[in-house]
C-alpha cells in the first residue's frame, strides 16, 4: 500500500507576474519550495514534482537535491491546464505501482507533513476509500489523496478540470478530513494572497 506524492508546480502564475513556484515568500524562499519540503518530509514512498518545460527550478528547496524519493517531471502539456499536470503526475504514480497518490499544490505554502500524513493514515485505516480530502467548514480543498481506483478517471480530465469533479461521481466513496487551522490549506493565487502569505511567514519566524 505505497503512496506517492504528486506535486503540481506547473502553474503559469500569470496573476503573480511570472512562475508561481518561483514567487518569493521571503528572501531566497520560493512559494513552491515550502510545500515540496513538507511533502518530502512526510511518509510518502516517492514524490513526482510536475513542472513546466524550461523551468530553471531555482525554487526547489535544498533538501530536494539529495532526496532519492524525488523525481522532477517536465510536463509538455502543462500549458493546456491543470488537468494535464495532474494526469502526468498520476500516470507516473500508476506506472511506478503505487496504490494511492497524495496530490499537493505548489501554491499552498503552509501545508505540513502532519497534515499529509493525516490523509495517508485515514486512507490506510479504510483502504476501501477512493479518496480522502481536506475540509474546512462546508468546503473541501487540496491536498487530496486519490486511491488507485480513481487513476483511470483522472486520465480523462481536460483543461483546468481538477480531481474534485471526480469525487462526486456515482459509486465513488471518500472521506473529508477536517482542518482546524484554515491557514494550513491557504492557497496563493493573487498578489494580495502572496502579500498575506509573506505576512504569515514573517509572523511565524
Automatic annotation (TrEMBL):
CDD domains: GT_2_like_f (cd04182). It comes from the Bacteria. It comes from Paenibacillus lycopersici. Keywords: Transferase. This is NTP transferase domain-containing protein. InterPro entries: MobA-like_NTP_Trfase, Nucleotide-diphossugar_trans. Pfam families: NTP_transf_3 (PF12804). Residues 5-169 form the MobA-like NTP transferase domain. Coiled coil: none annotated. GO terms for molecular function: nucleotidyltransferase activity.
Amino acid at each position: 500500500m505505497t503512496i506517492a506524492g504528486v506535486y503540481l508546480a506547473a502553474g503559469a502564475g500569470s496573476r503573480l507576474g511570472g512562475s508561481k513556484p518561483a514567487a518569493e515568500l521571503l528572501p531566497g524562499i520560493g512559494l513552491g519550495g515550502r510545500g515540496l519540503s513538507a511533502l518530502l518530509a512526510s511518509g510518502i514512498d516517492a514524490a513526482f514534482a510536475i513542472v513546466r518545460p524550461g523551468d530553471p527550478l531555482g525554487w526547489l528547496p535544498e533538501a530536494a537535491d539529495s532526496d532519492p524519493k524525488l523525481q522532477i517531471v517536465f510536463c509538455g502539456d502543462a500549458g493546456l491546464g491543470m488537468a494535464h499536470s495532474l494526469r502526468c503526475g498520476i500516470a507516473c504514480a500508476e506506472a511506478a505501482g503505487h496504490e494511492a497518490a497524495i496530490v499537493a499544490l505548489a501554491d499552498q505554502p503552509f501545508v505540513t507533513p502532519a497534515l499529509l500524513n493525516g490523509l495517508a493514515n485515514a486512507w490506510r485505516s479504510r483502504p476501501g476509500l477512493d479518496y480522502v480530502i481536506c475540509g474546512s467548514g462546508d468546503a473541501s480543498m487540496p491536498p487530496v489523496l486519490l486511491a488507485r481506483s480513481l487513476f483511470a478517471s483522472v486520465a480523462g480530465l481536460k483543461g483546468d478540470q481538477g480531481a474534485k469533479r471526480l469525487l462526486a461521481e456515482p459509486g465513488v466513496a471518500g472521506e473529508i478530513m477536517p482542518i482546524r487551522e484554515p491557514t494550513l490549506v491557504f492557497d496563493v493565487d493573487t498578489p494580495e494572497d502572496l502579500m498575506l502569505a509573506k505576512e504569515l511567514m514573517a509572523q511565524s519566524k
